[in-house]
Fold:
Amino acid sequence: MRYTKQNRKTGVIFTICICVVLLCMSACSNDSGSEQMAQAASPTVAVTVENDTPTAIPEPEMKVVLNGYSYAFAHDPKWDGKNVWIPGEEMLRLLEAAQIDGDGTWLCGNYTDAEGQYKNCYFSQDSTSYATDTIENTFVESDVAPFTNDGTLFITETMIENVFGECMTYSTNEDTLVITIADKQIATLQQGNDASLSFLTLKPATELKDTRINTLVSFCISSPAEAWLSWADRLKQDGFTSVRFTTNAIDGPAVDLSYAFIEESIPDDYIRVFQYLDELGIETKFHLSFWDMNFRLNGGTIDHHRLQDDTEVERYLAYVERIVTQLKGLIDIYSLWNEPNANYDFYQYIEAEDYINMAERAIPIIRHADPEAKIAYAGTCDYLDEGGHEYSTKLLTSNAITLADILEVHTVNNDASPSFRSEYYYGYVEMWNEIKALAEEHGFRGEYVADELNYRSVYSLNVLQPENGPYHPYEPEVAAKYIGRMIVINRGMDISIGTSGTDAYGRPVEGHMIRNLAYLMDGWEAEPLIVTVEAQSDQIRQYTFIDDNGSRYVAIWNDGEAEVMSMDTVCRITVNGMQVATAEAWDPFTSLKQSLMIDTSKGNTVLDGILLKDYPIIIKIS
Structure:
């Protein structure tokens, strides 16, 4: 920390390195670690129409400049004559720490130091000792202790810099705190707008309703049940209100015959995991994939074309009845197999006609054993390939589809973008419209899910989760932007999203985007709104939504090729036939927001000089 007698920028550059270590449990050793810290919202900004300028946010006692831009903390920093006190959680989030936990009296978070070492910091109210790394039991003694005010733990700038390195300069004459975080993308969201940026504070996890985004874990029997209980605690904090959680292997290559018992009965400690998910309000989908392991262990053989033989089908139906009966009341959705058109060499593939026959026989068994559960159908992959398209079409046009509640197609797991498989990317909406039309023409009246959303990064494909296939890895920032686009595109078509291979701990940049959009769009519905966009690009894409309170939202971006550093696209947005009182822009990539200048003088609402990114920004109008 530097203290100066005049207002000046620091010359010190603070380098943030994002950790990409796959962990499933927080390193914070505190029993209340799963609780989410409450945060106060930034002041509401009233925007005047007459002078076309934003009403200024009431300036806090201390001015803050973040990477050259005026910034307003949700809780004002404080100067006591010796130390600058910073709201700890918000500062850790600005510094992109991961797995941040706290309840207002304590705070911890994971980070990577300048040498690339994964560490965990910890601070506690009334304790002058704080940890720069709990993993190595490294503690520092301070002459002051953190304190709690308005539900937020405040820590000193010295504590922050002892953990993350020098990044702040405080001018006593100007009462201005200058924060410099290298490589952090920060910019105003509207030309000529001097309103302060502020942190995009999310609501408490306990208030999430239905984000319509799920995460996937399978073959869970291979890990202790206690680990899954701890994992479940973080689901909503990461934005997930739904999960695909299956004790058996979901794909053929992962099958281990030593776990054959799992197809006979689910152990009580794993039943407790399903009970806990239910208590947390997490919607659970269970995949009824079947590997006939006991039969094979006892000398039986099965064909690579599964479920052709009637005796094998009978064994499968008996398995379905056993599992559904045992899990009755705990599972919200049963999915009939995973990707039946994949992994022929690993006994996963089912001919389309045999899948249809299986579905027509299995669905009545599930309805009888657990009448409240929904049933997901198809779950096919490779829709962009001729074979996958033909296979899926057979399922969509069969009578069996009328028996299902959910149509699931894995359409977002191929890295398609403007620079790779661009025809598929730009034809995605038309493709799904055709899927819906075909299904509904044959009597389907249920919900739609685009599952296994994943844009691979170089690290995830080569280190975290190596895969064979025609994939196209991106830098983590670019992968996160495409993930954000696909979440909005599908939600804009009233299609729920499933994710795969986007672990929030191993892939924090991507997980950050998923979490922010999940929270921001929780409970939203796609709703038409007449919006005119005039821009420097002809590749603008936008969707409109409405929430339970009647507030409207426009999600909009430049739909060209994404880059690590976004290039702004200037545009004018006109909301026709509506005069709004306020408008605010939300940036889910940087976690910042800003009040916007508006003009309603001609009967419409005009937002001029909006700086679009290559990922969705959301404009709230109310």
User: Anything to note?
Assistant: Residues 210-521 form a domain with the TIM Barrel fold (CATH 3.20.20.80).
